[in-house]
Amino acid sequence: MPHSSGAPSGTPTLELLPAVDVRDGQAVRLVHGESGSETSYGDPLQAALSWQRSGAEWLHLVDLDAAFGTGDNRDRIAEVTGAMDIKVELSGGIRDDASLAAALATGCTRVNLGTAALETPEWVAKIIAEHGDRIAVGLDVRGRTLRGRGWTRDGGDLYETLARLDSEGCARYVVTDINKDGTLQGPNLELLRGVCAATDRPVVASGGVSSLDDLRAIATLVPEGVEGAIVGKALYARAFTLEEALEAVSP
Ligand SMILES: O=C(O)c1ccccc1N[C@@H]1O[C@H](COP(=O)(O)O)[C@@H](O)[C@H]1O
């Protein structure tokens, strides 16, 4: 049977997660995750609905104010999640029982924890045991060093933390190269390979995607354990459409 112009036939499909990051009620993109580097793209609900209409099966939704500790967009996040018919991965400021309960109550498919995995490991081990694959951990790295609190503080060694989380049963990792994030400079394939070699859990790639070729390159890592890729700036900058991206990674 003929196959599409995307990834080689027989390769499992790379999941694509278009990102909607919310700051001060607006959909924004940052460069290197730095506060103050925002470009605004308007209403987050409209952005999320447009990715859904374009065929997304996942939405990566981030409360940036909660991640930075500059307030939160909880109502907006709940509104967007509630309006989605697709799966939602929710990130930003999920650090204790109250914020976790609020996040899970939105009906999101899973949450993604950053700072908590670095600062309150006992709590994270407990909620992994309670919620299984509804919990992912975001490994946001610069070099080999993890960063928390809006990526402003060092949080330990990537591979030591990964080994600890693996032993606690963490179901999945969202791996972001901070140096690449929001830069349209291409993904850090070496980092992704390194993480895949160190764990048998699925990995979602994040940071740097600029072109369909970048997505095809990430898709070659599916057999090594990369399950998905978050796409942000490239979609907002119209480097390609989501329809083109989905086609590019479908076997
Ligand atoms: O996504 C970003 O651009 C981003 C930038 C700066 C900080 C955080 C960012 N995103 C997400 O937030 C979580 C971390 O939140 P927390 O530490 O759990 O409060 C991180 O994993 C990213 O998914």
TrEMBL record:
Alphabetized UniProt keyword annotations: Amino-acid biosynthesis, Aromatic amino acid biosynthesis, Cytoplasm, Histidine biosynthesis, Isomerase, Tryptophan biosynthesis
EC id: 5.3.1.16, 5.3.1.24
Molecular functions (GO terms): 1-(5-phosphoribosyl)-5-[(5-phosphoribosylamino)methylideneamino]imidazole-4-carboxamide isomerase activity; phosphoribosylanthranilate isomerase activity
GO BP field: L-histidine biosynthetic process; L-tryptophan biosynthetic process
Involved pathway(s): Amino-acid biosynthesis; L-histidine biosynthesis; L-histidine from 5-phospho-alpha-D-ribose 1-diphosphate: step 4/9; Amino-acid biosynthesis; L-tryptophan biosynthesis; L-tryptophan from chorismate: step 3/5
InterPro entries xrefs: Aldolase_TIM, His_biosynth, HisA/PriA, HisA/PriA_Actinobacteria, Isoase_HisA-like, RibuloseP-bd_barrel
Catalysed reaction equations from the record: 1-(5-phospho-beta-D-ribosyl)-5-[(5-phospho-beta-D-ribosylamino)methylideneamino]imidazole-4-carboxamide = 5-[(5-phospho-1-deoxy-D-ribulos-1-ylimino)methylamino]-1-(5-phospho-beta-D-ribosyl)imidazole-4-carboxamide; N-(5-phospho-beta-D-ribosyl)anthranilate = 1-(2-carboxyphenylamino)-1-deoxy-D-ribulose 5-phosphate
Catalytic machinery residues: 21, 140
SUPFAM superfamilies, per the entry: Ribulose-phoshate binding barrel
Annotated localization: Cytoplasm
A GO CC annotation given for this chain: cytoplasm
Chaperone in keyword set: no
Signal peptide (residue range): none
Keyword Glycosyltransferase in record: no
Parts forming coiled coils: none
Family under the similarity heading: Belongs to the HisA/HisF family.
Function text: Involved in both the histidine and tryptophan biosynthetic pathways.
Name used for this protein in its record: Phosphoribosyl isomerase A
Annotated organism of origin: Streptomyces armeniacus
